Automatic annotation (TrEMBL):
Protein name, UniProt field: AraC-type DNA-binding protein
Top-level taxon of origin: Bacteria
Keyword Chloroplast set for record: no
GO molecular function (one): sequence-specific DNA binding
Species: Geodermatophilus dictyosporus
Annotated Gene3D superfamilies: Homeodomain-like (1.10.10.60)
Record domain HTH araC/xylS-type: where: 207-307
Key words of the record: DNA-binding, Transcription, Transcription regulation
InterPro entries tied to this protein: AraC-bd_2 (IPR035418), AraC_XylS_family_regulators (IPR050204), Homeodomain-like_sf (IPR009057), HTH_AraC (IPR018060), RmlC_Cupin_sf (IPR011051), Tscrpt_reg_AraC-type_HTH (IPR020449)
Length: 311
């Protein structure tokens, strides 16, 4: 496992270190007359990056210009290990004490305020690997998740142990763990956000649609219009159902296809060429699967299969 570290007492060098480990940010010391110190340590777990950050008081800003200039976008979780911090994004402010955490996205402006010495644990996923649409993610960002009780405490313990002691996994195992942790984080954030959850007939309709989509993932013509026709609803109504779950119909189909491909590639009994797996999962060809798989998991289907079958 590759581990990257850095520390400095110079604010200009600290900006460079933050950009190298995360994304470009504007950083200003909270007290310009006080000594500054910052250190960072990061390591990969599949396509997930886990990091520990220690910093003197400072303000960190991801401006609209910085976000627009960056080709890559990430979903991040910041967990306060010690001290206190405030995260702002999408018109909300999350006030975080030790043990609390919150989600944020690098593709949109955000800011962190560290009033004093703060220890922060940061988990970073490539945005395409997390199946939330823009509207869904905006509902979840900058919400304080209490790390001291309930589901927040359970997930918080997982995050702390993952960052402070990353497990030694195969690349394929890391990919799987990274995906499962993303599911945990978005689940607890969704509970905190108290999204509008379909009830009664709408919930039953959504369950039927999910089952039908799972049965038809191999159909290359599967798209929102086909799903709506099969269930005798308008595409507008269909999109509203999925929006209530923080995703889109297309993202749900894509995630289902990728997960089915991943399971087939991981099966030690499987011998089918990647092209055949792609067609069985609804991708038009191996190249389309390879692009989507690499974007989501950071590796190619062929490499993932080899990693699951050492020797």
């Amino acid at each position: 496992m590759g581990v990257a570290t850095g520390s400095t007492d110079r604010l200009d060098r600290w900006r460079d270190l933050i950009r190298e480990h995360f994304v470009a940010l504007d950083i200003d010391a909270a007290d310009r007359d006080a000594p500054f110190a910052g250190s960072v340590r990061s390591a990969p777990v599949g396509h997930l990056s886990v990091a520990t950050v220690a910093t003197s008081g400072a303000d960190y800003r991801r401006t609209r210009g910085l976000a627009r200039a960056d080709d890559a976008a990430y979903l991040q979780v910041g967990l306060v290990a010690h001290g206190a911090a405030v995260l702002c994004q999408d018109g909300r402010e999350a006030v975080l004490a030790a043990g609390d955490y919150a989600l944020y996205e690098t593709g949109r402006p955000f800011s962190w305020h560290m009033g004093g010495d703060v220890g922060l644990l940061v988990l970073t996923w490539p945005r395409p690997s997390v199946t939330l649409d823009a509207a869904g993610s905006q509902r979840l960002t900058a919400r304080t998740i209490d790390g001291s009780s309930g589901l927040g405490a359970i997930v918080g313990r997982v995050l702390r142990e993952l960052v402070t002691g990353p497990p030694d996994l195969s690349p394929a195992g890391g990919v799987r763990l990274a995906g499962e942790v993303a599911e945990l984080v978005t689940t607890v954030a969704a509970e905190q956000a108290a999204p509008a959850t379909p009830a009664g007939p709408a919930a039953e309709q959504l369950r039927r649609i999910h089952g039908w989509v799972a049965e038809h993932l191999a159909d290359p013509g599967l798209d929102p219009a086909a799903v709506a026709r099969a269930h005798h609803v308008s595409t507008r109504h269909l999109h509203r159902l999925f929006a209530g779950q923080g995703t889109t119909v297309a993202a749900h189909i894509r995630a289902g296809r990728l997960e089915r491909c991943r399971r087939e590639l991981a099966d030690p009994r499987g011998t089918a060429p990647v092209f055949d797996i792609a067609r069985r999962c609804g991708f038009p060809d191996a190249a389309s699967l390879s692009r989507a798989f690499r974007q989501a998991y950071g590796t190619s289907p062929s490499d993932y299969r080899r990693q699951r079958r050492p020797g």
